[in-house]
Structures are given as C-alpha cells and as structure tokens.
Amino acid sequence: MANEKRRVLRSQAWFEGTGAKNFANRSWVRSRGVPEDHFDGRPVVGICNTWSELTPCNSHFRDLAQHVREGIIEAGGVPMEFPVISPGEMLTRPTAMLLRNLCSMDVEETLRANPMDGVVLLMGCDKTTPALLMGAASVNLPTIGLSAGPMLNGSFRGKSFGVKDAWNMAADLRAGRAVNGDFEDAENCLTRTVGVCNVMGTASTMASMVEALGVGLPDNASIPAVDARRRVLARMAGRRIVDLVREELTLDKILTRQALENAIKVNAAIGGSTNAVIHLTAVARRMGVELDIEDWHQIGRDVPTLLNLQPSGSYMMQDFHEAGGLPVIIRDMCEAGLLYGDALTVTGKTLVENNANAICMNSDVIHSVADPFMQNSGVAILRGNLCPNGAVIKPSAAEHRLLKHKGRAVVFEGQEDLNLRVDDPNLEIDADSVMILRNCGPRGFPGMPELGMLPIPAKLLKQGVTDMVRISDARMSGTSFGAVVLHVSPEAAVGGALAVVRDGDIIELNIEERRLELHISEEELQDRLAVWEPPAAAANRGYTKLYIDTVNQADEGCDLDFLVGKSGSDVPAAQH
Ligand code: FES
Ligand code: MG
C-alpha cells in the first residue's frame, strides 16, 4: 500500500492528517474494530444496500454485501456498507415510483457526505435500480452496479409458472374460468425463492440495462439470486471496484451517450419493460447526457427482439441464464454491428471484449439477429394531439389486430372510478372501445402508478376478449402486456389533452405511423381545455408535496426538477 499513500483519494480528506477532526474520524471508525493500517490511503468503498424485509426481492442483500465486502478487502480496499431507503414494488403505497426520487436523494447525499472513493450499488426490485443509478450519477464516483438476480422459475402443478401466468389466472378468476382455490395454491409457487420477478419485468430489464451500459459485470442480469455464482459475482464486483478507484474510472466515463444507445438497443432485443424509457431518461439527465424519448424510436426501431421471455414470450429468467444470459445477446448484437462494441465498461475492457466468448445454449430461448424471435418490436414512441410530448407502447405485447385501430372512448377519471365501474354489466363498452384512464400521471396520482394495463371488463372477458386498446398517463408493470398506450405526456393533471377526452370521442391508434389522435378539431380541443379545472393536489405537506410541486413529466424522466444534473463529490469540510 506504500505507493498508494501518495495518491490523493477523496477519503484521505477525512482520514489523513494530524488535526483533531482527522483523529476523531479515524477514532470513530476504529470503534468498529478496524485496525490502524486501514487509514494508510486504501480506497474506501461504499456498499450501498437496499436490503429490507419490506422489499423481499432484495432481502438476500445482507448476504450478498458480505461477498462484496470480502472482494473489497481482498483487493486492498476498505468496505463501508450503508443503508438507503428501499422502495419495494409490491408493498409500497401508493406506488414505489413516488419514492424512487427520494431514494436517489438518499444515495446522492449519503455518498457526498461521507468518506467514500467508490461505491458498489446493491439493487434489484424495480425502482431500486434507477434510484441508485440516478443518485450515483449525480455524484460521479467510480461505481459498479450489482443486481439482485431473479427468483428461480415459479413452478405450479408440474409446470413453469411466471408472473404473466399469475395475471392470466387472475383474469380467468374474474371471468369465472378459474376457482379461488387454484389461485391460492399458486401463491407460493410463483415466488419460491428471494430475488426479483422471474420474467423480463422492470427489475430484470433494469438489471440488463446495468449490464448493457457497462456499469455492471457480465452476467449481472440473469444469474439467479440464490445461485452461488451470484455470490462470486458480488465478490468480483468488490475486487474490481477497488481497482476502478485506483484507475480513477468515474461513472461518467462509462455512462456515456454511446452506452445509453447500447442500452436502448439491448432493451429492444430483450423485449424490455416500458419503464426503462422513464428510468434511463432520468439517469441520462442526471449524468448530463442528451437523451430524448424520440431516441428510443430512432435508435431502437430496427432492432429485433431476440429473447423469448415472458411477458412478450414464454420462458423465464432462469431459462435465460441457462441459455447463456445477456452476454450471448450482446455478443451477437456486437457481431451484427448493432452496438458500440468499443464502449468502455467497469471491467476496464470494452463491451465486445467482455462478451466475446458467450455461447448460446438454447436458441429457442435466445434467438439471434439472423433468426430473431420478433421483428421491430422495441418500444414505440407515439405522437399526436392526444400526446404532443409523446406516449409509449410496446407493440410486441399487443394483439396484432389492435396495432391499427379506431374506437370510441370510454373514460375513467382515475383508479377509484375504474374499480367502481369496470365490471358493471351496464357499462357501455365493446371489444372495439378505447379505454381511457386519466389523473394517474406523475403529478396527478401522484407518482405515476402501474395502472396502465386497465383490466378488460368482466363481461368482455366472458365473451373471450383478451386485449383492447387502453390509454393512460400511468405506467404499466414490466410484467404486463396488451395494446396499452402509456406515459401520455403532458398528463391530464397538468392540462394535457387527455384531461378533456369524453365518452364517445373517436380515438385512432396507428403504430406503424406512430400516431395517437383524438378526432376532434383543434378549436374544439382548445374550447374544452379553456374550461378545464385542474384537480386538487393530493397532498399539502411532506415529501409528497415536494414531489407534486417539482416532478417533471414522463418524457423528462419523472425526476424532481431540481435534481436534474450533478452535484459532484466535492463537499467542504466543517466541524460538527
Ligand atoms: Fe420486486 Fe418484481 S416486485 S422485482
Ligand atoms: Mg413494477
């Protein structure tokens, strides 16, 4: 370690020197049983932990953190594990998305305030990944992302059972095709281990983004949570971060425009979640990299979907791992010239070097660029008078007949109205109707919940209807599917056109032309907006008020406006 003493590390401002403050800083850390030589100029590495029993998907992180810690020590660094709030997808009310930005602030301020030279981010459940990336991007230390890994495949009565199967079973229940007992029996068969949802939902999409961005190590996305190899990955992340600090490879050298373009393409190739559009936009804007939602169309449109995974396909994450995982897709896409293979990653090598030896073990799970699972099926960005700043749809998840569709609007004012009326036998609706849900955007709900996959009315389910055009300013779960138009921007609560759609209005969706139109005249639209009154704010105090007052729109990443950009890691010292 002798020659490291001359290197000026951020942590040395805390630990090196003879002042009373340096003494106190060392002394207090030594209260944990840390020997004197830990202050000889070794890189101090934070392990940012979203462990929580309230986030079951991340509940193995105390174990995983131990393996990161061992790796850090092996490489000559000093680990400093710390908790941040953990917005878990299932339990958090009203939606974990509301807390994503709060978590990112926790990460940013904790990193800035403390003696850390680099950080390993432990993230898994949906919002924990973007929150940690956003916070870390605003500080810009050397950073490695380590994901939770997926649950093992669910297994129910001898068959694989994923989240999509569970949603289908719930619809069968409402249509009277399944019995409650089956549903209850399936409950513990779906989630038989810790880890993130076992399909290509938002969590595994974001874990894949971490890998594609080069912020995570190869195989980060798919090694199951309980597989010993994930512990090895954790240990390797611990070892590598210490070198990353020594090499001064800060996050901005990895998280570049090229890396984000790679991520957009990989998202298309894996049939990734629509939530990635919002999260990567927010991360890019923290980092100061230009990224417009239009880029999702321009960059992703010609990329075929290679992966046959639920919700777009049929397999699950464990199958993906056994077939070779994301390295196979990245290698194939690099060879086809679809990715910037020379993008630098946290291994210190390029994307193409990291993945050159990946072998596909099951071509029914991982198809190839030459023989894709689906053509041109990434995220489509729509425009039109109903969404002048954009809306998002995942065409691969929609029934083909609805990709070009005209129908009469049936409007729901919000979640409560929807729950109240959707199964009313007297609701005037048919299979060609266009279901509208409003006041569920970032400011309106607030927090932009995953309500976009409106349930098909029970009476239509009974007729065998399995998909309808649904439009909202909400998001949808990465495990959801259907002809679902999301993220309509501007949202209804800020006076977007969605606010003044009426029952019976004709709405046209044309995916090929990327259009979403409300068929009324511009004059009529302006007349309606002129008499529109904004809904009352949902909160007048606390974090929720801060969120309502400052959240930006879906096309801007739903960040708080004052959090866009970086603060960096320089913080002046002061006495207590
Ligand atoms: Fe946590 Fe799906 S609920 S990953
Ligand atoms: Mg979700």
From TrEMBL:
Keywords: Iron, Iron-sulfur, Lyase, Metal-binding
Annotated InterPro entries: Dihydro-acid_dehy_C, DiOHA_6PGluconate_deHydtase_CS, ILV_EDD_C, ILV_EDD_N, IlvD/EDD_N, Sugar_Degrad_Dehydratases
PANTHER family, A to Z: HYPOTHETICAL DIHYDROXY-ACID DEHYDRATASE (EUROFUNG)-RELATED, HYPOTHETICAL DIHYDROXYACID DEHYDRATASE (EUROFUNG)-RELATED
Keyword Ribosomal protein attributed: no
Enzyme Commission number, as recorded: 4.2.1.-
Stretches assigned to coiled coil: none
Species, as recorded: Kordiimonas pumila
Protein's recorded name: IlvD/Edd family dehydratase
Domain Dihydroxy-acid/6-phosphogluconate dehydratase C-terminal: 364-558
Gene3D superfamilies in UniProt: IlvD/EDD C-terminal domain-like (3.50.30.80)
Gene Ontology molecular-function annotations: lyase activity
Source taxonomy: Bacteria, Pseudomonadati, Pseudomonadota, Alphaproteobacteria, Kordiimonadales
NCBIfam families noted in UniProt: PRK06131.1 (NF004784), PRK13017.1 (NF009560)
Domain Dihydroxy-acid/6-phosphogluconate dehydratase N-terminal: 42-354
Family listed: Belongs to the IlvD/Edd family.
Pfam family, one: ILVD_EDD_N
